[in-house]
């Protein structure tokens, strides 16, 4: 029985194959094929060369939904909405796109105004009918949509979170009149209040659906042709996985598909290694994702966005900054900066030799010898030291620095920016990062981790096994997870514990159905409840964990007070409101476990494969290069050193030491 | 002292990071919802003589005036400051904005050398005064707006100034909450102090101060380079605040003379209307800050905000005028002066850098209040609405629709209909982009927002404090004005208008009656007959422009399928251009007419010319040469004027970039403001 995790990123497709009986892990990196991601996946599968019939699990992290939204390459979409409210998505929240600029460009909404159709219907905030649904209007719209050849329709009615029967009836009619067209209602995608966020989430969902469905269909076909019969699961933004058929129905759930896998792996492997308090730093080619875990648990948020569009789906609280290996260093108006412009994967850094001429973080690393040029990157890209040197050198000349000093400077500025991203999830939320261990992964994370840790006063860095394929690893650790929500606003004085239990029970019932359908037996079901609550008059809610079998309202008020005090310090005398009810439904799955490190072939002597001049703080030093797969467990190597492995390199600066622990994590400590 | 270019950027980032941390600290620890929820506060970091760091998330109207506050506080208390002291100030007359904005300034020392001031300005929900919330549209003196705090030491060498605490809190509603807000400001300043010390320990005080010096200098150098690129000279513009005195409309003049001398710029508001006993006056700090916001947004949008950019700019705001209010006039509603100052800067700069400016934007803060008592819930309710309008068109693009103007930072301006209906006995019947509200132009002004809000409670009261109800946003280079703000009521299909547009106090609205509120459209940019006809057709297809406006304003004729009829369009455009009325400018000494307080520009026309233009006495017209921003005046019929001519004073000619004898186009200001005329309700 084997399991396969496949994470498709912008530059590389990462595969992790796990043999359950042999407890053996194999990894592979192959260039991504952006036009049709399934091609790269099949190439990877062929190169791994395993017995197709033995594969029982296929879990996939995909950027198809996200890219479709970001590249604005989705369906021909129409919105059907309540009369009087066609401009919700056009106007948004009326805030500025660019500060202090009289030439702020207009926002380009997801749908043109002329593709938003109004029908007569109206509900009040309590769900009661103000105006019944005018079905003639719906039929008239259906005719227009059929004539226009739309591919997807989002039905977005005001106050539909309180009662969605109008939306459902409208969907019925459109479904019948428009065969083959994706039809989604706002209450089905996100039954929460605040129309802009709900409509935006619903519209994005419909916008990306046709392309995602085509992709999943193609992938299934290709896998079948290759003799693979395992069901396909897709990683979702909340850190769980879902059967692909569910993600086809609700593609919006997969917006953070890739980054979520890494956080799940960090949680499992960090905890197993004895480091439950972690800050992850997933540095790739164009951006870096940061997430804070306490006691192995990551936070959740509903404040996500894709590009400028809010996505209110509950997702892992991951903070992203536009700094990655491909970020370009430049000077304008006297100010030297790194990013946010990126060379991406095409042309990529100058060192890639694909026509890039501006210096990037990767080029700085190549110039300083931190990335070796002997072995091609991902088995394919031969790095060009001279191209990197001349790109960095040109900027150095402009600034008045030698090439090496310029390269070092680029890395220092990048370090400050990456440290800022970590401050964002720690210090700015009142959490001291020095109480945490930094866990880097992604192609570039381990190169910069020690420097970032130093900048923040963190004393420990944990480089996990397989850092270059870490997100794919997480795919084979994730449980199934579905988050269910229902908005019902009322003051706590106006609801009873019976009401709360009944509403949570409804959500549990919906979750149970979902888990049953995915084939999870009842003993593998888990449900966790929380309420979104606030003081009356506030506009933002706090997530308050509660028991499913709430005994009295006082319990809930007390739980709210605790969360509120922890966040804001004091309490106020205002009335407390419950805004939304939430249940996370988990289907517990079998998990990949990391094998113990085998002792054979490992020793301090065998580990050192060579020496290379690497500059630290401007001075080049002859530094030992260590092969991670030959490092013995428990031996402490002193910095400066460079640890190399398939898909990643770890810099151990002077003043730091590195040692391999029994689970295969490389622990860097400040001496 | 030298510093390497990398350490310079590292230190710059470190200071920005310290301010971000201040901001997060205020959010986490403040007591009032307005601060931690609505983010109505700003943080900044100052060197003893200037502002070093402010944040882009901060509200420009808060943070940009802060240097004046610090400067005034330093003049008064600087020589006595010791470690552990903190200054508290909100006095508009000594560097403040309005009384609700309370500022804490916290000196940080290295040894006995004063090196930095972290400062927090937060909007306190109440600072005493006549009404809860302190801001009253009816205030005639500052004493009704709350307690004035001139710069005082609220902390002395780490000890609370107990007498001051007691006195202040005794004069405010909800004193515990205010104490919480004050402590949040202290906490934020202490965090900054800690970070500054860490930076000094690592890099040394001298290196840090050197980095600050270079940061300021390079911002200054960028701004000087921008100004140097402009031709020297004096450029002018004028605009008005709208008031009603005893029910009669009285525009208050705000004239600007902008001098460009080499790499310096002087914004001179000499001649501004005297201050008035209404809360529309503003302080020198606010007026100067508004000049800076305009300059920054026009010339140097990309770089982070610091005071270096503003060194080449001087502002002259005559004391006792609406731009530099003196005791005892009120200053509660300073937002309108901010918008007017920005507008005059845009108008003046349109004469010298037309490619850099945009049409006038949003025009007003547009404060709408609809509230009452809900017998179903037994609660009082108030809906506060400040929908943004359209921004001005500019060379590269149409102005954005419904978007917060440049002085509002990241403020959200469109509130969720579902939230409104959940909280209040109201039904938001429609919430739409208002067709034809954006000023026509080669690039169009952004459209505004029109909302119909129906009252479900037995009764409610509606108030509006707004400008831009009479004078809309102006266009540039021949662009047309946007539509003015509008507000009216509707019940059983009957529409009722107000006869003091923009100023409405407590107008009763019965159950099932609706209030319709429409924000201001942005000014157009360039001649509308030069807008590509295809883009006009698209605007019609998308509903931003009506086919009537396409025909009458843009000269675009569309066929039944909505496609451009090229031949008919060319003919209509020729007709439109040919039907413009021009008058020969005749120089006069004084182009103004005095009112009770201020004065307004008038347009003297021979009655036959007035008939040609279809205007009457007291109508508003635009003078235009299509070389810069349009100029406004009020019509006076005068048979003593030679037909075909119009008198213009020196300032008027300068604004239009015209000389005596040149033809000046005059057109009626066609304000689409009222759906129907009916019963009116006056308010002060």
UniProtKB/TrEMBL annotation, chain A:
<dbReference type="InterPro" id="IPR002821">
    <property type="entry name" value="Hydantoinase_A"/>
</dbReference>
<dbReference type="Pfam" id="PF01968">
    <property type="entry name" value="Hydantoinase_A"/>
</dbReference>
<protein>
    <submittedName>
        <fullName>N-methylhydantoinase A</fullName>
    </submittedName>
</protein>
<feature type="domain" description="Acetophenone carboxylase-like C-terminal">
    <location>
        <begin position="497"/>
        <end position="662"/>
    </location>
</feature>
<dbReference type="InterPro" id="IPR049517">
    <property type="entry name" value="ACX-like_C"/>
</dbReference>
<dbReference type="GO" id="GO:0006749">
    <property type="term" value="P:glutathione metabolic process"/>
</dbReference>
<feature type="domain" description="Hydantoinase/oxoprolinase N-terminal">
    <location>
        <begin position="4"/>
        <end position="176"/>
    </location>
</feature>
<dbReference type="InterPro" id="IPR008040">
    <property type="entry name" value="Hydant_A_N"/>
</dbReference>
<dbReference type="GO" id="GO:0017168">
    <property type="term" value="F:5-oxoprolinase (ATP-hydrolyzing) activity"/>
</dbReference>
<dbReference type="InterPro" id="IPR045079">
    <property type="entry name" value="Oxoprolinase-like"/>
</dbReference>
<feature type="domain" description="Hydantoinase A/oxoprolinase">
    <location>
        <begin position="198"/>
        <end position="483"/>
    </location>
</feature>
<dbReference type="GO" id="GO:0005829">
    <property type="term" value="C:cytosol"/>
</dbReference>
<dbReference type="Pfam" id="PF19278">
    <property type="entry name" value="Hydant_A_C"/>
</dbReference>
<dbReference type="InterPro" id="IPR043129">
    <property type="entry name" value="ATPase_NBD"/>
</dbReference>
<dbReference type="Pfam" id="PF05378">
    <property type="entry name" value="Hydant_A_N"/>
</dbReference>
UniProtKB/TrEMBL annotation, chain B:
<dbReference type="GO" id="GO:0017168">
    <property type="term" value="F:5-oxoprolinase (ATP-hydrolyzing) activity"/>
</dbReference>
<dbReference type="InterPro" id="IPR003692">
    <property type="entry name" value="Hydantoinase_B"/>
</dbReference>
<dbReference type="InterPro" id="IPR009010">
    <property type="entry name" value="Asp_de-COase-like_dom_sf"/>
</dbReference>
<dbReference type="Pfam" id="PF02538">
    <property type="entry name" value="Hydantoinase_B"/>
</dbReference>
<feature type="domain" description="Hydantoinase B/oxoprolinase">
    <location>
        <begin position="4"/>
        <end position="528"/>
    </location>
</feature>
<dbReference type="GO" id="GO:0005829">
    <property type="term" value="C:cytosol"/>
</dbReference>
<dbReference type="InterPro" id="IPR045079">
    <property type="entry name" value="Oxoprolinase-like"/>
</dbReference>
<dbReference type="GO" id="GO:0006749">
    <property type="term" value="P:glutathione metabolic process"/>
</dbReference>
<protein>
    <submittedName>
        <fullName>N-methylhydantoinase B</fullName>
    </submittedName>
</protein>
């Amino acid at each position: 029985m084997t399991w396969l995790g496949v994470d498709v990123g912008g530059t590389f497709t990462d595969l992790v194959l796990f043999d359950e009986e042999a407890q053996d892990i194999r990894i592979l990196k192959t260039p991504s094929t952006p036009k049709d991601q399934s091609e790269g996946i099949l190439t990877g599968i062929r190169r791994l060369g395993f017995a197709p019939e033995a594969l029982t699990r296929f879990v996939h992290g995909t950027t198809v939904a996200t890219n479709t939204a970001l590249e604005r390459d989705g369906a021909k979409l129409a919105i059907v909405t309540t009369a009087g409210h066609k401009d919700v998505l056009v106007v948004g929240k009326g805030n500025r796109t660019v500060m202090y600029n009289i030439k702020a460009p207009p926002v380009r909404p997801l749908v043109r105004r002329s593709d938003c159709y109004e029908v007569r219907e109206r509900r009040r905030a309590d769900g009661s009918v103000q105006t019944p649904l005018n079905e003639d209007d719906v039929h008239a719209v259906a005719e227009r949509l059929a004539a226009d050849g739309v591919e997807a329709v989002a039905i977005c009615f005001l106050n539909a979170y309180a009662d969605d029967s109008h939306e459902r009836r409208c969907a019925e009619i459109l479904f019948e009149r428009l065969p083959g067209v994706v039809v989604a209602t706002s209450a089905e995608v996100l039954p929460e209040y605040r129309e802009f966020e709900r409509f935006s989430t619903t519209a994005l969902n419909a916008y990306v659906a046709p392309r995602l469905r085509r992709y999943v269909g193609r992938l299934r076909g290709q896998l079948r042709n290759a003799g693979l019969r395992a069901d396909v699961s897709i990683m979702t933004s909340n850190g769980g996985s879902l059967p692909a058929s569910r993600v086809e129905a609700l593609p919006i759930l997969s917006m953070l598909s890739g980054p979520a896998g890494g956080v799940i792996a960090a949680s499992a492997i960090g905890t197993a290694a004895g480091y439950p308090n972690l800050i992850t730093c997933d540095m790739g080619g164009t951006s870096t994702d940061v997430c804070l875990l306490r006691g192995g648990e990551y936070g959740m948020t509903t404040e996500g966005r894709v590009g400028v569009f809010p996505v209110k789906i509950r997702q892992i609280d991951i903070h992203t900054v536009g700094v990655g290996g491909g970020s370009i260093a430049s000077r304008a108006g006297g100010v030297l900066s790194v990013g946010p412009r990126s060379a991406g994967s095409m042309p990529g850094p100058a060192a890639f030799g694909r026509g890039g001429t501006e210096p990037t973080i990767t080029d700085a690393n190549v110039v300083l010898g931190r990335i070796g040029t002997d072995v091609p990157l991902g088995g394919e890209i031969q790095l060009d030291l001279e191209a990197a040197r001349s790109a960095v050198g040109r900027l150095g000349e402009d600034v008045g620095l030698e090439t090496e000093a310029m390269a070092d400077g680029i890395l220092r500025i990048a370090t400050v920016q990456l440290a800022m991203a970590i401050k964002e999830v720690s210090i700015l939320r009142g959490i001291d990062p020095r109480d945490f261990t930094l866990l880097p992964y992604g192609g570039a994370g381990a190169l910069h981790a020690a420097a970032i840790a130093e900048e923040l006063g963190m004393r420990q860095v944990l480089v996990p096994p397989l850092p270059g394929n870490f997100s794919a690893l997480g795919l084979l650790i994730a449980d199934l997870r579905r988050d269910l929500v229902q908005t019902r606003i009322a003051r706590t004085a106006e609801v009873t514990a019976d009401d709360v239990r009944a509403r949570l029970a409804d959500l549990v019932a919906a979750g149970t159905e979902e888990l049953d359908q995915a084939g999870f037996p009842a003993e593998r079901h888990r449900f966790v409840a929380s309420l979104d609550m606030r003081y009356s008059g506030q506009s933002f809610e706090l997530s308050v964990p509660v028991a499913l079998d709430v005994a009295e309202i006082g319990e809930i008020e007390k739980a709210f007070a605790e969360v509120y005090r922890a966040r804001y310090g004091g309490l106020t005398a205002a009335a407390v409101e419950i805004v939304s009810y939430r249940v996370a439904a988990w289907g517990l799955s079998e998990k990949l476990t990391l094998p113990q490190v085998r002792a054979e072939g490992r020793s301090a002597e065998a580990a050192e494969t060579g020496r290379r001049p690497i500059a630290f703080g401007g001075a080049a030093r002859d530094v030992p290069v260590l092969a991670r797969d030959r490092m013995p467990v428990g031996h402490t190597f002193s910095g400066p050193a460079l640890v190399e492995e398939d898909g990643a390199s770890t810099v151990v600066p002077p003043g730091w030491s590195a040692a391999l622990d029994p689970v295969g994590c490389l622990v860097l400590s400040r001496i | 002292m030298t510093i390497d270019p990398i350490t310079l950027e590292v230190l710059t980032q470190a200071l920005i990071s310290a301010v971000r941390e201040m901001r997060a600290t205020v959010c986490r620890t403040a007591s009032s919802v307005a601060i931690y929820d609505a983010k109505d506060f700003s943080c900044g970091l100052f060197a003893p003589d200037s502002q070093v760091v402010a944040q882009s998330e901060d509200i420009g109207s808060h943070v940009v005036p802060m240097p004046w506050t610090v400067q005034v506080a330093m003049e008064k208390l600087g020589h006595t400051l010791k470690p552990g002291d903190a200054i508290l100030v909100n006095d508009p007359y000594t560097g403040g904005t309005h009384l609700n904005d309370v500022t804490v300034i916290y000196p940080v020392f290295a040894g006995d050398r004063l090196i930095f001031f972290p400062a927090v300005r937060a909007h306190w929900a109440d600072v005493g005064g006549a009404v809860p919330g302190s801001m009253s549209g009816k205030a005639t003196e500052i004493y009704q707006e709350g307690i004035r705090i001139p710069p005082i030491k609220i902390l002395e060498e780490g000890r609370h100034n107990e007498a001051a605490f007691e006195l202040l809190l005794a004069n405010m509603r909800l004193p515990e909450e205010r104490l919480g807000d004050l402590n949040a400001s202290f906490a934020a300043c202490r965090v900054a102090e800690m970070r500054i010390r860490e930076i000094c320990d690592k890099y040394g005080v001298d290196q840090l101060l050197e980095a600050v010096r270079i940061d300021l200098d390079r911002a200054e150098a960028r701004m000087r380079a921008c100004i140097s690129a402009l031709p020297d000279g004096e450029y002018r513009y004028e605009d008005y605040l709208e008031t009603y005195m005893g029910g009669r409309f009285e525009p208050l003049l705000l004239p600007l003379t902008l001098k460009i001398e080499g790499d310096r710029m002087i914004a001179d508001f000499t001649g501004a209307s005297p201050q008035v006993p209404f809360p529309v006056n503003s302080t020198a700090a606010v007026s100067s800050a508004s000049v800076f916001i305009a300059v920054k947004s026009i010339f140097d949008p990309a770089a982070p905000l610091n005071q270096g950019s503003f060194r080449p700019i001087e502002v002259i705001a005559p004391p006792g005028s609406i731009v530099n209010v003196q005791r005892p006039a009120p200053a509660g509603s300073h937002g309108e002066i901010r918008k007017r100052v920005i507008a005059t800067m845009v108008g003046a700069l349109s004469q010298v850098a037309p490619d850099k400016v945009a049409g006038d934007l949003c025009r007003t803060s547009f404060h709408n209040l609809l509230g009452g008592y809900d017998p179903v819930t037994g609660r009082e309710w108030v809906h506060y609405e400040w929908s943004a309008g359209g921004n001005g068109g500019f060379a590269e693009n149409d102005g954005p629709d419904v978007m917060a103007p440049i002085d509002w930072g990241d403020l959200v301006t469109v509130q969720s209909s579902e939230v409104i209906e959940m909280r209040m006995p109201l039904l938001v019947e429609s919430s739409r982009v208002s067709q034809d509200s954006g000023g026509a132009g080669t690039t169009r002004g952004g459209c505004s927002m029109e909302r119909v809000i129906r009252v479900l409670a037995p009764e409610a009261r509606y108030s509006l404090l707004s400008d831009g109800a009479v004078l809309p946003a102006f266009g540039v280079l021949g662009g047309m004005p946007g539509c003015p703000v509008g507000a009216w009521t509707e019940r059983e299909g009957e529409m009722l208008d107000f006869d003091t547009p923009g100023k409405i106090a407590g107008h009763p609205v019965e159950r099932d009656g609706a209030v319709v509120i429409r924000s201001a459209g942005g000014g157009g940019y360039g001649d509308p007959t030069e807008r590509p006809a295809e883009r006009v057709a698209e605007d019609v297809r998308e509903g931003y422009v009506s086919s009537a406006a396409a025909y009458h304003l843009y000269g675009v004729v569309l066929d039944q399928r909505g496609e451009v009829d090229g031949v008919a369009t060319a003919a209509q455009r020729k007709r439109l251009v040919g039907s413009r009325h021009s008058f020969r400018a005749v120089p006069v000494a004084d182009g103004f007419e005095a009112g009770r307080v201020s004065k307004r520009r008038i347009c003297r026309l021979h009655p036959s010319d007035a008939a040609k233009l279809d205007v009457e006495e007291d109508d508003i017209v635009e003078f235009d040469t299509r070389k810069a921003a349009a100029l406004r005046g009020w019509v006076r019929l005068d048979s003593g004027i030679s037909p075909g001519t119009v008198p213009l004073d020196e300032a008027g000619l300068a604004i239009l970039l015209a000389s005596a004898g040149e033809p000046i186009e005059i057109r009626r200001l066609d304000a689409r403001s009222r759906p129907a005329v009916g019963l009116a309700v006056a308010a002060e």
